[in-house]
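pls read this protein.

:::
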Amino acid sequence: MRRPDVHRMSDGTKLNRNELLAHLITVAPNFIAPYVQLASFLENDELITLADGRKYSRREVLLKALEVDSKNAAALYLLSTLLGKNESIVLLNGKKKSKQDLLAAAADNSESHLIFSALGGCLAIGDKIVLEHSGTTVTKKDCYVAALRQVAKADYLFNLATCIASSERVVIEYPPRTGTEIDCDRKELYILALEHNSEMPSAWYGLATQLAANVSVTVNQKPFTKQSCLVQALTLDPSHAMAFASLASTLKDDEVVTTSDGATYNRKQCYLAAIERNSAYADAYCNLGTALSTTETITNRAATITLTKRDCYLIAIQHNPSHAIAYFGLGNTLAKKGETVALLNGTVVGRRDCYLETLRHNPKHTLALKGIAASMTDAEVVTLHDGRKITKKEWENPRL
């Protein structure tokens, strides 16, 4: 706990900093500044005695502050920091406010980058809120644009990049407070974020997602490809499962890549490394299944995971029951006529069942259509998941 400075009063009484602020509240109970300053100095578990003899927590001091001035941005913001994302609090006037409500009210009366970035963190992409006082409509993207008008922080640039589509562009004031505006796409925002903080694995991964395999960009005066961005992400965060899975996509079957710890990985080993780091990563299982041959088995370096092609598809379906590609891949492993396999939930399926599930989740999957048609007799009729009955001729010339 911090040890506040000691102040000597005119009567010789010694007060520490927090006690002095409590005294100012007693002297001027309708002056909000001491409340806010006191709350900013108090630890979350610390109590302070005010003039009424009661002991107040940091949260209670802020509630008293908002009783004095319900629109004070600093008090609203500080109170919001004490709440979880979905938590609410009842003010002393009886009104219930969520963390988002407090931050929206604060943003209505302040341009603070801290307030706008925190509000952006509360909003989902696509959310719109209207600030009560100004009537301004605000989105998640607007919050980070507003924050960047004040301060260029790597986090704000990164968060803004995640708010926009790959094809979208956004205008920001950059450098901040200069009146100069620049037009950025997602890739350029990731680069700016990394120029402010090159130790952000999520930004390196984000940048990699925006690059084609043969494209190079310059970050901090050094060239980086998609693959080298992913290696950089893994250097900073070796547990980054999605970076390993994306790294696999940059490799040909006979290629290997070396990470900063000296370990080498081929394409299949990258997918397996992703699975080691996220055992519920359905896409990584599916992609590994696609990469393995029918008779091949793969084991991780620690010998804790052993998988066949079929295992990969079964586990992918377990973690994502609507994974069309995994169902199609599983169907392809059932080569023998009448062969079946039990899904990990116990359901027994054959090749045609797998293809039908593929079409349930991706009605335009051409190869699944052809697979079903090839297995049918001319007189046979197959029922789709929605109840429609289709003949072989209709499968071969589908209008699904």
